[in-house]
Specification:
By secondary structure, the protein is α+β, with helices and mostly antiparallel strands. It has 2 helices and 5 strands; from the N terminus they run H-E-E-E-E-E-H.
């Protein structure tokens, strides 16, 4: 994930209050800093995110806080192996 690499490259060079935070707007989860992901498959470009809150429609959902929500990198940013894998899925 390019955004995550950029975030790590910036950190340590500026004071904490001046370090920009890069955000990913994950569907069904909301805005999260790129370093808050749960898991990331670099080859396929799929990151997995979790929630730390419930919305009104999720109050009765026991899995709302344990569910992993996927976010997909643009295929054009993936390596040859990842692009091939995605083209075979179509």
């Amino acid at each position: 994930m390019e955004a995550q690499e950029l975030q790590h490259a910036i950190m340590g060079y500026l004071p904490g209050y001046a370090t920009p935070r890069i955000v990913c707007d994950v569907p069904y989860v909301g805005k999260r800093w790129v370093h808050q992901l749960e898991d990331y498959d670099r080859e396929l470009g799929i990151s997995y995110w979790t929630k730390n809150y419930r919305t009104g429609i999720e109050l009765e959902d026991p899995e709302a806080l344990n569910r992993r929500y996927p976010y997909y990198d643009p295929i054009s940013t993936l390596g040859e192996t990842g692009q091939k894998w995605w083209s075979e899925q179509a």
